[in-house]
Structure formats: structure tokens, C-alpha cells
């Protein structure tokens, strides 16, 4: 279904509150379609922020008279330092000094965009609760506003409008929300109380909420969902993993808690005894990551997506794209391949790579089958832990960016092994990133950005020369990290299966020949599938797997 998009912004109302020379400069630039914000900071030149870049509106610095000119034409600023214009969607935010005087203004252009909700129409019509995530300015509030308008044609809709961004400023809501009713919030800290009041007093079928950001608001959202009311809201965060790592808002997706398993259950799962699990059913049925205004990643079953991430096996989302002609392309989440290997050991948790977007040949050392982004993460048995597929052809030059790793040790390790590795000075110049486990578990921004760009990320357990030599040796398949005796994967699988059958037929234990970490990982996973127990013994290059019944 294609819907014609219409945009109304009432830009003249915003320009009328600006000093005349600045308003004239905005009109003269003739790029109002791309205009996002007008910035007035005391003692600096005024600028116009566009979709791409900024324009200087005047070489004359902003004075207190300029700021006062704008403030006098506005209503009162709320407790969150925001003000608006009557019956428009424009928002003016203030920056104050320590004495409370306004020294800066951000004049944000508010636009009502009709026809944007068709990309989510089916989910909304099914009555599911939707949580929208995305960076500022990507269009979360626009989708909320349009969803409220569409739903209000057939249902009782209440908008909890904390900052008047959805329904505009003033007592009469903007026409963009249609027949939806709007409840304003006196102070941002009272948003949760207004949410509960909306349910108790006004009998809604749908509640629309913008910017769930506090623990009390998350608890109020759960209370509303448990009463059978459809929720459509936004929260601070870019992705499902961000929300899982946010202790304040993780309750929206069920909450995360540490659980201690029995010995039998830990053995059955092939994990440590302490794992992370979802605490309760999620408040929202569907989670939508807004990547751009026309590209959405949809987790259609939040509970299953969270459970899979906690078990180290991320489920790929459904990707929805609006084409230039207005049609909607929906790419269903691909089914997990039957040969995809699951992690058999290690700590469970959401702190794993969701995929790199790069293809890798089967047998690349990580159990990766060449699927695109959102591949399941892998388990690595050796002392270095690859978080993405990146095994290279022998002696292929490689640029490595060390994040939190000693550069001199990495360079010395490369020289010692004689591999063509160059230590990059900037991550933009690198082919892969290597970091320490502590940085990876804390989801440092450098690591997350590298993963989002599709750059393979390797994780070392310690910042030692031995670790780096093992990492580079495994990367280039040299020394004790080669695939062993040159056996094919089929031969390895056959040999391991024979040992498994021997144990199943009564042998107390069977020890397999020494093998590389890649081979041992395959062996561990085959043993787990047979519901037996396996451990690795010895040191490289003679480390080997032993299979037990118990």
C-alpha cells in the first residue's frame, strides 16, 4: 500500500518570533525543506542546522537583545526549559546560566508529516504495543503523532504529552493528532502519574507516550499494559541491546536478572552456573529500531529476541524499507540455518556482536556460515576470542586498530611471527579492531561503532605479548593455530562422531587427537548435541578434547 506523504510545518509562525534580519536570512537561504533547527547562542553567530550540515545566518554575533526579542514572543518556559507556539509543533528550548538567565535558544522546526505510518500499519492494526527507539531527530515523534491520528479514527486514544511535542503548544491540540485526546504534564517528573491517571479516569483503548526515560515511567507503562491497554511509545536508546544494558528501562523488555542454575541444568545448557535471564514478560510486544526515516528494524517478538540475545544467539530482525516510489519492502527475518553452530560454553549475555554485514566463507574459524548482518555470535575456546568473522588468507596484509591494547606489543608480536600486520593510527583506516575483554563487555562506544560499521572485532583476555601472538597466529592460521593434520571438516566430524558413539556404547571416556581451537570448538558442539560432556586438556599445540558420559 502506497500513501502520499504530506508535510505541513507552519514555518512562518516560527520565523515571526525571530529578529527580522535572521528571519530574512532563513528565507533567503531557500532551504527550509531541510531546516531542522535555528541556534541562537549569546556571543556567537546564529546558525541554521540542516539535514546535512549547518549554515551561518549572519556574521553579527547574537546579543541579549536578540534572545530577549524571541523570549518576549513566547509563552512561559516549563520546568524542562521548553516553550512552544500556540497550535504549532515548533519547540523552543532554552540554555540558562547559573543565575537562571537565558543565554541560548534552540528553535526546533516542528512538522506534521502525514502518510508515514504505512510502514507499521499492520502492526498497529493488530493491536500490539509498539516501542520505538532511535537517535534524536530520526522521526520517532512524527511516527507517534501519525499513529495517534490513525488509531483515533476507530479507537479511544489518549496522548500523554509531557513536552507538548506530539500535540503542540497551547490548550487546543494540533490538527495532526486527529481525534486523539491529549493530556498535558505539569512537570516532567510527574509523567508516570499522568499515565496512570489517563487509564483510571478516561477509559482509553490506546495510550501514546513520548520519551519514557525514568524508572517510574517504565513501571507505569507495565501497569498500563497489564490492564489490556495498547501502548505506543518511545524510549531513550538506539537498539534492543542498548535497552538491555539500561537498568532503568530494561523492565520495558522484561528486565534482566542473574540466575544460578543447578549443576544438571548448567551441564545440559553447556554454560556456566550463573547466567542472565529475562525476569518477566515484556511490556511491549514489538520493538522497532528506527535506523533512518525510511529504514526500520522490527523485532516482532520482543520476548524471544531478548531470550536469544541472553543465550548468545541474536535473532535477526525484520527489515522494512520505504522505497522512493513510496512502496514498502519487508524483508522477513531469515530462518537460522540448520548447520549454524551454537555456542557451547562461556558466559551468557547480551554483550556480543550482532553481525558484521560481511560475508565469510564456511569454515572460517568462527562457525560462521556467510549470513549477513545479525549473525549469531560465536564461541571461541582459545585465549583470544573473535567476536566477528575475520580469518584471513595466509600472508594477506592487514591493518589492525588496537583499542585498549598495547601497540608496541602488537607490533612486536607481528614481527615475531613474520605476518604483514600494520597497526593503524585511526580506526577509519583499519580492517579489524582488537580490544580487551573488559572494554568489550562494557560496550565502549569505539567497539559498538566498529560493529555497526561491519568491522570485525577481536577480543583478547589479557594485554600480553603471548595473547597477541596467539591472536595473530590464529588470524593467519600459522603455528599451533593451523587446522592440524590437514583433515577436512567432514573427516573431523566423522572422527568425532565415532568417539561419541563409543562413549554412548559404554566407554567411560574417549580422548581425541590434538587439534586447533577451531577443530576443538566443532568437537565440543557435537558432544553437546549428543548430550555428553567434554573438556579440553593440555597446552597448545597439543591441546585436545576428552569426551565423557558424565
List keywords for this structure.
16 helices; 550 residues; alpha/beta
Q: What is the total tally of β strands?
A: 27
Helix content: 25-40%
Strand order of the largest sheet: 11-10-12-13-9-16-17-18-19
Mean pLDDT: 80
End-to-end Cα distance: 58 Å
List the uncertain runs. Answer: 336-394, 479-486
Note the main sheet.
Answer: 9 strands, mixed
Number of helices: 16
The dominant shape is: globular
Report the β-strand fraction as a percent range: 15-25%
Structural class: alpha/beta
Report the C-alpha radius of gyration, rounded.
Answer: 28 Å
Description of the structure:
- The chain is α/β, with parallel strands linked by helices and 550 residues long.
- It is built from 16 helices and 27 strands.
- It has a nine-stranded mixed beta sheet with strand order 11-10-12-13-9-16-17-18-19, sandwiched between helices. It has a six-stranded antiparallel beta sheet with strand order 4-3-2-7-6-5, covered by helices on one side.
- The longest helix has 16 residues.
- The protein is globular and about 85 Å long.
List the helices and strands and how they pair.
Elements: E1 6-8, H1 11-15, H2 20-29, E2 35-41, E3 47-50, E4 54-56, H3 64-71, E5 82-84, E6 91-96, E7 102-108, E8 112-114, H4 121-125, E9 130-133, H5 140-151, E10 157-161, E11 181-184, H6 191-202, E12 206-212, H7 215-226, E13 230-235, H8 240-244, E14 256-260, H9 263-269, E15 274-278, E16 286-292, E17 295-299, H10 302-310, E18 318-322, E19 328-331, E20 384-386, E21 398-403, H11 407-417, E22 421-423, E23 432-436, H12 437-441, H13 445-452, E24 457-460, H14 465-476, H15 489-504, E25 509-511, H16 517-529, E26 533-537, E27 544-548
Parallel strand pairs: 9-13, 9-16, 10-11, 10-12, 12-13, 21-22, 21-23, 23-24
Antiparallel strand pairs: 1-8, 2-3, 2-7, 3-4, 5-6, 6-7, 14-15, 16-17, 17-18, 18-19, 20-24, 25-27, 26-27
Amino acid at each position: 500500500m502506497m500513501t502520499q506523504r504530506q508535510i505541513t510545518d507552519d514555518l512562518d509562525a516560527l520565523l515571526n518570533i525571530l529578529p527580522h534580519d535572521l528571519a530574512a536570512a532563513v528565507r533567503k537561504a531557500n532551504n527550509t525543506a531541510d531546516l531542522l533547527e535555528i541556534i541562537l547562542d549569546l556571543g556567537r553567530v546564529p546558525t541554521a542546522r540542516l539535514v546535512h550540515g549547518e549554515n551561518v545566518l549572519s556574521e553579527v554575533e547574537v546579543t541579549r537583545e536578540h534572545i530577549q526579542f524571541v523570549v518576549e514572543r513566547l509563552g512561559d518556559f516549563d520546568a524542562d526549559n521548553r516553550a512552544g507556539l500556540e497550535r504549532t509543533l515548533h519547540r523552543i528550548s532554552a540554555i540558562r546560566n547559573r543565575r537562571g538567565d537565558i543565554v541560548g535558544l534552540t528553535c526546533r522546526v516542528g512538522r506534521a508529516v502525514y502518510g508515514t505510518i504505512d510502514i507499521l500499519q499492520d502492526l498497529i492494526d493488530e493491536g500490539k504495543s509498539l516501542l520505538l527507539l532511535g537517535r534524536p531527530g530520526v522521526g520517532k515523534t512524527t511516527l507517534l503523532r501519525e499513529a495517534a491520528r490513525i488509531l483515533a479514527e476507530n479507537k479511544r486514544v489518549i496522548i500523554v504529552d509531557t513536552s507538548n511535542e506530539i500535540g503542540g503548544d497551547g490548550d487546543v491540540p494540533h490538527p495532526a493528532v486527529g481525534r486523539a485526546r491529549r493530556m498535558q504534564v505539569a512537570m516532567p517528573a510527574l509523567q508516570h502519574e499522568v499515565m496512570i491517571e489517563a487509564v483510571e479516569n478516561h477509559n482509553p483503548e490506546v495510550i501514546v507516550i513520548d520519551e519514557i526515560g525514568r524508572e517510574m515511567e517504565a513501571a507505569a507503562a507495565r501497569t498500563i499494559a497489564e490492564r489490556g491497554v495498547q501502548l505506543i511509545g518511545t524510549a531513550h536508546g538506539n537498539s534492543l541491546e542498548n535497552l538491555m544494558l539500561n537498568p532503568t528501562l530494561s523492565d520495558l523488555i522484561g528486565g534482566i536478572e542473574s540466575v544460578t542454575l543447578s549443576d544438571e541444568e548448567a551441564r545440559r545448557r553447556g554454560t556456566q552456573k550463573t547466567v542472565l535471564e529475562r525476569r518477566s514478560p515484556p511490556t511491549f510486544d514489538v520493538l522497532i529500531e528506527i535506523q533512518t526515516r525510511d529504514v526500520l528494524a522490527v523485532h516482532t517478538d520482543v520476548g524471544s529476541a531478548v531470550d536469544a540475545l541472553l543465550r548468545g544467539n541474536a535473532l535477526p530482525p525484520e527489515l522494512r524499507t520505504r522505497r522512493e516510489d513510496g512502496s514498502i519492502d519487508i524483508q522477513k527475518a531469515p530462518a537460522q540455518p540448520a548447520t549454524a553452530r551454537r555456542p557451547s560454553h562461556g558466559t551468557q549475555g547480551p554483550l556480543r556482536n550482532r553481525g558484521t554485514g560481511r560475508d565469510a566463507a564456511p569454515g572460517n574459524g568462527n562457525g560462521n556460515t556467510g549470513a549477513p548482518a545479525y549473525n549469531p555470535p560465536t564461541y571461541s575456546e582459545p585465549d583470544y576470542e573473535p567476536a566477528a568473522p575475520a580469518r584471513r588468507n595466509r600472508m594477506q596484509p592487514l591493518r589492525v586498530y588496537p583499542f585498549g591494547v598495547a601497540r608496541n606489543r602488537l607490533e612486536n608480536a607481528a614481527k615475531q611471527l613474520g605476518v604483514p600486520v600494520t597497526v593503524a593510527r585511526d580506526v577509519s583506516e583499519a580492517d579489524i579492531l582488537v580490544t580487551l575483554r573488559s572494554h568489550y563487555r562494557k560496550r565502549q562506544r569505539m567497539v559498538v561503532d566498529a560493529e555497526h560499521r561491519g568491522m570485525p572485532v577481536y577480543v583478547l583476555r589479557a594485554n600480553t605479548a603471548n595473547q597477541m601472538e596467539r591472536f595473530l597466529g590464529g588470524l593467519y592460521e600459522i603455528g599451533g593455530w593451523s587446522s592440524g593434520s590437514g583433515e577436512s571438516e567432514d573427516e573431523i566430524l566423522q572422527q568425532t562422531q565415532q568417539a561419541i558413539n563409543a562413549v554412548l556404547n559404554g566407554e567411560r571416556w574417549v580422548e581425541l587427537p590434538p587439534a586447533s581451537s577451531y577443530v576443538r570448538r566443532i568437537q565440543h558442539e557435537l558432544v553437546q548435541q549428543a548430550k555428553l560432556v567434554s573438556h579440553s586438556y593440555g597446552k597448545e599445540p597439543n591441546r585436545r578434547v576428552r569426551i565423557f558420559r558424565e
